[in-house]
Amino acid sequence: MSASHPAPTQASPMNVIGRPHPRVDGALKVTGAARYAGDHYLPGMLYAVPVGATIAKGSITAIDAGVAEQMPGVRAILRRGSFPPLGRAELDMSSADTTAILDEFRPPFDDDVVRYYGQYVALAVADSFEQAKAAADAVRVTYAAETPDVDPALVAEAMTVKSERGDAEAGFASAAVTIDQRYAMAPETHNPIETHATVAVWEGDALTLHETTQGVINHRNVVAKMLGVPAERVRVISRFLGSGFGNKLWPWTHSPLAAAAARTLGRPVKLVLSRAMTFRNVGHRPRIEQRIRLGATAEGKLTSVQHDYVNATSILDSYEENCGEATPHMYSTPNLRVTAGIARRNIGTPTSMRGPGAVPGLYALESGMDELAVALGMDPVELRLRNEPAIDEGLGVPFSSRHFQECLRVGTERFGWSRRDPRVGAMTRDGLTLGWGVAACSWIAERFASNAAVDLREDGTARVACAIQDIGTGTYTVMAQMVAERLGLPTDRIEVALGDTRLPAGPVSGGSMATASLVAPIHEAVAKAGAALIAAACAAKDGPFSGSRPEELDFVEGKITAKTGNRQAMGFDTVLKALGMPAISGSGSGTGTFMAPGKPTVSKHSFGAHFVEVTWQPETARLRVARTVSVIDAGRILNPLAARNQIEGSVVMGVGMALFEETHYDARNGAPVNASLADYVVATHADAPAMDVHFLEYPDTSLNALGARGVGEIGLAGTAAAITNAVYHATGVRVRELPLKLEHLMT
Ligand code: MOS
């Protein structure tokens, strides 16, 4: 490639990387101009409302749709046998183009067996939503019901060793000080403001889905397999999402159902899930039980770490919550064992929820570390500082960039930790008891394979395109920043196209990997567009660079520049006009690191520390998370405003995890009983603490040229533990079951 890559430099006047840039799509969202999936209205469109099973275990004996079918506007009551059986998607994780992943493998209407409450048993389709809803309610389904198993007490079918070194039992047995505790977490349900929605329209044998998905390419591939059509005949569009938190990562059964209904009836079909269906049919973080055993010398040096965990999963799908992800690399210990198991319940299939695995895992590990510090009579920050590993002892390779000790040190200063009186209940302010707690966080730093294309246009604007999504985290903005920085332009001259399978294949927006995945393909696409422009300019009969040779020219900050001589420089817009070309394009691609075959040569993770102050008023049993300090080591921060938003949102979500969020399943029929935003309590603005977020900003170029890791999930890791650790400091009550309830504290 003849074009050079200018080093990212803070000095460049047009440099927008590292600046607190507001969302480029913000105005569209706040004015209501952004069209979400459910906002699409097509000529002749019908509305579909699923009929969900009202048992969680058993079988369907009859579906009586006689009344429903006669109701006004009703087009069909679809059920098993109404259309050819849907196919089964197989797992394929080979590239951004062909990935096909989902959690619930059973296609809808596959058999008459019911395995969870709300499982779709029929689909009412009518001219209006109200008619479809009324018809769905009028369908009479009879069942041979059995008693479902939604027991929260989990016993694993079998335990698998996930990581092991040394002799964990012996290290524990010979330790001077030990703790052995169990920690449980209630099932949490993702509640993005925008519920799942599909608008399916067929033109001949070509399908378009207006979707709300964190992965248009994967969604296309899965739905194409289920419908038995080539992936090239399916287009998935998802330009705006009202978030997802993981429950829009992989397709759920309503989407192929809507597409099958549209194909059967020959009309576009819209299917929008209700909030109640969100609790039944599109995943959740399952109930998790964990056991932590730690052994240490009297000086607080870990001699053994054991972490065992079991998560609930559905009857047919073996979802594993990878709670031990961070445990092997978090602290130095010669002896360690991590084991995992699953337990099947008559509940819908679980899925990834913000920080799957490490978030619940670090709740347990960081609670255990706090209990060990108490047992040792040692400051919990000091205990963590004493167990800093030199390398990732789980993988046996160096860290790409780890500054966890600095996170702790900076956090103690910003929080005022040195003023902490370690005695329980000893600190007070304005008649309130204060509790101060700390916990560590860690999250993977990886990237997915991705492609991107960049067009330079004669009007001095540019367009960047990738079939990636913006789930509300700022992907539109960071893509604009990346191109603006390379071209020396302000972001308002950059058009961003995403969320459409017709664009160059991109990855799912998940695992905090979107930004890191985009750097290489976007940089290469800009460079290729520049190289193509140089080639065209050199080849032109007459023009500013005719007669030059490509190797004499560079493409720097959007200008063709002579390497020597007068160093003549000319912007791409001027060159394009001189050449009579409306635009010139370049494309780029980047490889993935996530789950890549072979042993990694470095351990890539982000780190951080949360410090929490709770206030406790025993007279009124009033607990508040008052303030937090989060120090995050996530590489170079490309947009401090958007990044801080991510950590703040995570900390508020952590307040919900610690104190509020819990899905209750009725033991009689397996129904999630608090399936509404009135009854499922999430943290609100009123629950948000005063938050101080600080980034260390050590660029990690092992992942990409900009040195950026991800920030979408790490802020949730450790937060709940820091809160319950603070509650112990205030009250002396160690709560080991989330969410913490006031009755736990009224001793
Ligand atoms: Mo996130 S759970 O990877 O959407």
Q: Distance between termini?
A: 70 Å
Number of strands: 28
Bound molecules: dioxothiomolybdenum(VI) ion
Coarse morphology:
globular
Low-confidence stretches: 1-13
The averaged pLDDT comes out at 96
Please tell me how large the radius of gyration is.
27 Å
Proportion of residues in helical segments? 10-25%
Q: Summarize the biggest pleated sheet.
A: 7 strands, mixed
Class per helix and strand makeup: alpha+beta
Q: How much of the polypeptide forms β-strand, as a percent range?
A: 15-25%
Q: What is the count of helical runs?
A: 17
Strand order, sheet with most strands: 3-5-1-12-9-10-11
Q: How would you sum up this structure in a few lines?
A:
The protein is α+β, with helices and mostly antiparallel strands and 747 residues long.
Key phrases:
single chain; 747 residues; alpha+beta; 17 helices; 24% helix; binds dioxothiomolybdenum(VI) ion
Description:
This protein is of the alpha+beta class. The chain is built from 17 helices and 28 strands. The strands form 6 sheets. The chain has a 7-stranded mixed β-sheet, sandwiched between helices. The chain has a 6-stranded mixed β-sheet with strand order 7-15-14-13-8-28. It has a 5-stranded mixed β-sheet with strand order 16-17-25-26-27, sandwiched between helices. A hairpin with a 4-residue loop joins strand 18 and strand 19. Helix 12 packs parallel to helix 13, helix 13 (514-539) packs across helix 14 (572-579) and helix 15 packs across helix 16 (719-731). It is globular, with a radius of gyration of 27 Å. Bound molecules: dioxothiomolybdenum(VI) ion. Dioxothiomolybdenum(VI) ion (MOS) binds at residues 214, 244-246, 249, 352-354, 356, 510-511.
